[in-house]
Amino acid sequence: MTTATPTNTSMIPTSKRGPRLRLYRARAYRKPSVIVPAAILLFILLACFAGPTLFHLPKPSVGNLSDYLLPIGSPHHLLGTNTLGNDMLSQLLVGGQITIIVSVGAMALGLVFGTLIGMIAGYYERIVGAVLMRILDIIFAFPDIILAVAIAAYLGPSVINTIWAIGFFNIAGFGRIARAQTLRVVRMDFIVAGRSSGISGFSILWTHIWPNIAGRVFAYALIALSYAMMAEASLSFLGLGVPIPTPSWGNIIGSNQSYMSLAPLLIVMPAILLFATIASANLLADGLQEKRASTIE
Amino acid sequence: MAARNIGSVNSPHQSSGEPLLVVTNLVQEFSVPKRGSLRNATVSAVADVSFVVDRGETLAIVGETGSGKTSLARTLLGAPPPKKGGITIDGHDVTKRNRATRKAQSRLVQMIFQDPSSALDPTWSVQRIVSEPLQKLGLSRQERDDRVADTLRRVGLNPERHSRRRPSELSGGQQQRVAIARALVGRPALTVLDEPVTALDAATQSQVVELLAELKNEFGLTYLLIAHDLAVVQQLADRVATMYLGKICEEASVATLFSTPAHPYTAALLSAIPSFTPDERPRLRLLGEPPSPIDPPTGCRFRTRCAFAQEVCATVEPRLREVAPGQNVACHFPLGADGTPSTTVPAPESLGTVA
Amino acid sequence: MLRMILGRLPQMVIVVLGTGFLAFSIMFVLPGDVVRSILGDNYTPQAAAQISAQLHLNQPFLIRYFSWLGDFVTGQLGTSLIPPHQQVSDLLGQALLPTGEMLLFGQIIAIVLGVGLAVLSVASRNRVVDRIVQAIALVCSSIPGFVLGLLLLELLAVQFQLVSPRGWVAPADGGWGENISHILFPSLILGLFTFPVMMRVFRAELVSQLDDEDYVTLARLKGISTGRLIFRHVLRNSSFGLLTVVGINVARLVGGVVVIEAIFGIPGMGTLIKNSVQQHDTPAALASITFVAIFVVVANLLVDIAYAILDPRVRDAAS
Predict the structure, then answer these.
(1) Is B164–A197 a contact, with Cβ atoms under 8 angstroms apart?
(2) Which of the pair, B178 or A153, is modelled with greater confidence?
(3) Which of B153-167, B264-278, C233-247, C272-286 has the lowest mean pLDDT?
(4) Burial class, A27, CB count within 10 angstroms (exposed 0-12 / middle 13-18 / buried 19+)
(5) What is the CATH number of domain C97-267?
(6) In this predicted structure, what is the pLDDT of residue B11?
(7) Cβ–Cβ of C273/A226 closer than 8 Å?
């Protein structure tokens, strides 16, 4: 391996990471398979969170029954209304907010607790690791939806409870990824070197192991996000997730299920948004992984 | 020994009559799953090994792959701690894992690893890697940075140019220099070198060996060198021990061991390299494959591959004993100056019949 | 081999006990007055006391768990708290057939689609075909199962009337032919929903075999075409990869069953779990959830064992 070093490296004002590295990273992300899905996700995010105020949309659930099932392009109702006369655009965007908040929250819950458990299980391999892994196995053995159904049903439908229910089964997935990655890193000699410098276990976990597994964990986070989004939609569809009248993409589909033949767009529109968001998250995960494969190896 | 407090680590190179590293009856074992059985098998990696290393001295440990030399090196670092036996470095019993020894450890023993790409955290900068052993020493930020810059300069790197780089942005030779800087920055009493140049290309190898020799002379370092390349051993070591299946076979000064090896295993190792064997001595070959360390041979562990093995070798394990001044051998029939066994009767010392 | 099975058994028992414990905790530890939500408007102190006694609510949590566990192991699953108070074992028995059929057919459809498309995309050595297959997989894995179900139901059953919108006809009512022909459509959706993961894993397995294994290089040198190579050699060696994906898929199928059963109104395990959980029918919910967990754990163990029997490398490595 040779180092083609630009001689002026030290003259560029240096950040903590070093300028060369930053440039090199930015270039690796600049390609269609990363930019396109990232742009779609960003657009959906902006539309859902800024859209309702920006376009002065009516509240999603204050429709007038006399305005029911207005077609697309109606005055004041760009995407029409639903069977209760609620503005569909507002329903979709606010519903998107809820769906995104729930799935990001659930993913973050899994990320924090799962990664922590997985790292500890991988680092303290013997008794602690075995016990933690059995616990993760138990959570993993539960088909996720069934677990979420059980938790959500007993907690009662609400936005927060949906986050808990979905987040709980996310822990196992993150735990397994983090443990496998930790087991890979723990074998490295720099861990032995760190320990022989008197560095404590938790310090090694945080300063050596976490930076080395973070890439893989975040790549999995995108996949977990798409799972969480599907789970939110499925739970809300079953009536166990986000309760009506708060809209979410899942319960919009669920509540309009019986009007499928009459007004298919009420279901198709949220379905398209759900699909676009999940597909973009999946594509972005693929694109980032491609980047890893081509630049790391 | 216990009376000496941790504070004395701060001046590790004080002269005292006692050797820097004292290893007594060290045992390291690993359990592995056994085929067709519900119980685990035990691999005996280091079997009852004792030796000492004096201050400023370099002891090389040589042996084939699987002889237990790397296990020995890692045991000295407590990764993992030994199953039995004692390790004393600069008067500190490092087999006791408590807060105090952990804190002192970076001043007691550091290791330079075989593969620099595994020894350096790819997410850390050179600066941060090298300063890691200083973290627990209570130095100020300025002192730490100065020490790191000094050490980097000393190993032939440019602190301005290299300290912000990641290991992946350096060449293999530069990476190993960083690893050396990391190990030496805290001035450890003992430095364990585990095949320090094996992963490097030939040209870089000689540079790094030269650097290690310079550093040793300049700072009066004590090395424990694990190697299989005898040329490296000859350049760096004062004394050599040969290891076979977790046991020390022979131990002597470099000159003695290379010119008149007394253990058949040592002789066979040297025979593999043409320039090391004087013409008048017969060349010895190792017979067959090394046996499994899960089920080592009875008596002398080397007997299954030894050209001179006799019945007694299968029943009585030879003890390490002095056959010439400064030359210790664990063999019932040690080789004489002509390269053949000098006796036909095992000495009572090697049988262990005398106290 | 034997060592592996024996090693896995205690692990499996622990996992099953743990899942039971988890289900039990959810039912009793989470907030909410169980008795009140069971009785609802019929709340009277006498009824409450009776229910409490029935659920052993007046005993410590762990004792309750172990007495439930003892009952479960000996097959005393109790009676449903919801009128008409059927035996839980009967409820489970009735729910087993529809779900079993769906899992079986869904798995077969997922294997056919997953393996077929993976082989197609690799064997064709054609970027366009590969891209199309990948796109299909992406679409199917990005649509939630219930959306896929609703859309296909509307399109195929309501608009074009190609299939019956009814998902379940009991064999006693319409005979086995009717029964199977009705369950196939929901199973297809289950298969469509779950095959992309299988396809991806299996495709990666095929690609790695083609890239890395020496025998493939050798065969290539002899001039054997990729297609023939895959069918004659690689598929056999990739059957381990197939087993893995079959194992992974079991949990996903079981998860999908809940939603698909809800759409088609199929009276299977998913419906039983959903209803019993929603109605706080604790004996039925506990029994059905634990039963499903055992099913998934045992399925994974069987896959591991099959894996060990097939692959000498795993067999010798012993765990």
Answers:
(1) no
(2) B178
(3) C233-247
(4) exposed
(5) 1.10.3720.10
(6) 41
(7) no
Pairing of strands B327-329, B321-324: antiparallel
pLDDT level of residue A17 (50, 70, 90 thresholds): very low
pLDDT digits (tens, 9 = 90+) for C32-67: 556 666 666 677 777 777 777 766 666 777 777 787
Report pLDDT for A3: 41
Predicted pLDDT of residue A291 = 53
SS3 B86: strand
pLDDT at residue A9 tops 60: no
Q: Please name the residues between 258 and 317 in chain C that touch chain B, using a CB distance below 8 Å.
A: 316-317
Q: Which residues of C touch A153 (CB under 8 A)?
A: 274, 277-278, 280
Where exactly are the structural domains of chain C?
2-73, 97-267
- Specify burial of residue A127 (Cβ count, 10 A radius: 0-12, 13-18, 19+): exposed
Task: Identify whether A44 is part of a domain.
Answer: no
Tell me whether residues B132 and A194 touch, CB distance under 8 A: yes
Report which residue type is found at B248. I
Distance CA A173, CA A137 (A): 10
Please give the Cα distance from B340 to B351 (Å, whole number).
20
Q: Is A151 contained in some domain?
A: yes
Span A18-41, pLDDT tens digits? 444 444 455 666 777 788 888 898
Domain assignment of residue A263, yes or no: yes
Q: What letters, b where the CB count within 10 A reaches 16 and e where it falls short, cover A39-73?
A: ebbeebeebbbebbeeeebbebbebeeebebbeee
The pLDDT value given to residue A297? 31
Chain A residues in contact with C270 (beta carbon < 8 A) = 146
The larger pLDDT score, comparing residue B17 to residue B167, is at: B167
A263-282 pLDDT tens trace: 777 788 888 889 889 988 88
Residue C198 has pLDDT above 90, yes or no: no
Rounded to an integer, the average pLDDT of C192-209 is 80
CA atoms of A282 and C168, how far apart (whole Å): 34
- Note whether B33 contacts C318, CB cutoff 8 Å: yes
Describe chain C by its helix, strand, coil percentages, rounded to 5: 80, 0, 20
Domain that holds residue A172: 101-297
Q: Which residues, numbered 231 to 290 in chain C, qualify as contacts with chain A under a Cβ-Cβ cut-off of 8 Å?
A: 251-252, 254-256, 258-259, 262, 270, 273-274, 277-278, 280, 285, 289
**CA-to-CA separations, C151 to A96, A265, C183, in angstroms, rounded:** 20, 11, 17
Which one of C12, C16, C25, C26 would you mutate to disrupt binding with A, by most A Cβ within 10 Å of its Cβ? C26
- Cβ-Cβ contacts under 8 Å, C273 against chain A: 146, 149-150
**Alpha-helical regions (H) of C40-78:** 45-54, 61-73
Average pLDDT of chain B is 83
pLDDT, one tens digit per residue, over C10-31 is 777 777 777 778 777 776 665 5
**Domain made up of B21-33+40-237: CATH architecture:** 3-Layer(aba) Sandwich (3.40)
Residues of C in contact with B33 (CB under 8 A): 3, 317-319
| Surface of C (44-73) touching A: CB under 8 A | none
Sign of CA dihedral B251, B256, B259, B263: negative
Domain ranges of chain B: 21-33+40-237, 272-354
CA distance C296 to C254: 8
In a domain, A182, yes or no: yes
Q: To 5 degrees, how large is the angle CA B202–CA B208–CA B211? A: 150
User: Global pTM?
Assistant: 0.78
The domain tally of chain A equals 1
ipTM exceeds 0.85, yes or no = no
Residues 6+ apart with CB under 8 A from B51: B23, B59, B241, B248, B251
Verify whether the Cβ–Cβ distance A196 to B165 is below 8 Å.
Answer: no
CB A170 within 8 A of CB A228: yes
